[in-house]
Amino acid sequence: MSMMISEAFQLPVYGLMALLVYFISLLAISFYRARSATLSDYYIGSHNSTWWLITLGMISDSVSGVTFVSVPGSVFNQGYSYFQIVLGYFLGYMIITTVLLPLYYKRNLISIYSYLGERFGLYAQKTASVLFISSRTFGSAARLYISVMILHQCLLADFEISPIFSFTAAMAMIVLYTYKGGIKSLVWTEAFQSVILLVSIFAIGVMLWMKVPDPITEILKPTLFFTDPMKPNFFLKAILGGMLITSSMNGLDQNIMQMNLSCRNVGDAKKNMFTLAFVMVAVNFVFLAIGALAKAHYEERGLPIPMISGGGVATDQALPFLALNHLGRFPALMFIVGLAAATFSSAGTILPAIASSIEIDLFPESWRNRVPVRVVHTLAAVLILILIFAIYAAGAKSLIDLVLRCSGYTYGPLIGLYGIGIFTSIKLHHHRVPYLCGVAILLTALLDFYSESLFEGYKLGVELIAVNALFFLMLTMVFGRDRSRQ
Considering the entire predicted model, what is its pTM? Predict the structure, then answer.
């Protein structure tokens, strides 16, 4: 990845100063809130968090740095196809609100995968935890990689500093402000970062609006609904896939649910999720509108769209290149700080979630006192950092599709497990669950690879997660049922 950065207003100097003020503020909030934090505070904020504050904080956690750069960039070659998935997200939030949150609160869970342990057995709980940890560590590494790489190119590339330093420094900062307080401090730091993110989106959007001659026409120009059922972006597939992705990546995800479980009661948790559903539809549409305005600005000025090495358009770099070179000092600085807020917010909440899941779901009880959760917290950060190094060594293009497809492979079995647990009375041979999950993922991968040749050009899209869940359900009905306990 390469990106020419204008030095007309000394962006590296001002950008580093802005990030310094941002990080000092973030650490101050974190340290203040983490005073005398207990384990209950670390895990679930002692069930004492304000619901609307969680809603505000979950905006930046749900957006991530990948969304910040990839969603606007996707408009350049995919129109508003991503918004079809966003409509599915809304339906997924409704499922979480009405079905999953009451279940979790009724059982007073800390790790949501404890439900599967109670319902089926220990192997089901451990399998769910491994699927979550696998998906989230890779997803977090991918999100951090692209965001930190852009920040590095903006601010440190001229100093001949290796990106390895930037990756390591970013992860060290995340550990520093999440280590002690866990969820108790994250509720406040996430809210702070959401405010920064929203202000930066507004600033960039206003500047683009002012530079495009007919902004309303440009915003309404991209195609919204795609009606070819043979394409991955067919609207029914996109909506279904978005619904299942949110139901699983949020409702069956320890990361997001740990924030929800810090609310005072299930009523407050429902208010949080219901409000977030509407807010995220609006926020994602603003990102897409910014992408449409950015595309119009490129076309009007005849600007070259950034290219990836080896040829091809680097849509992930389209908005960063524009914001950092052609909109002026203030939008450029707001882009840097906004990208940092999205990046560190989405990565910060994952560490307590992974640590909690490992501690509660994977460790035997005898280990829990010997291996403190905050040590696991740090080791999880090291694992994510190693994955970032691997992505950097391999190179990367557009990551938004990659992250979504990864979730399709890992969260499908979770949908199947929770579906059986909630809506049926079926008992399972829980020690078979890991094998059934592995076979379902393998079958999904094979079908994904050969779908175009098998189905006359039909290409699997975000509905991959539904196919995976269906494979798991069929395998479980045949090989997993414990009929002696029915």
Answer: 0.79
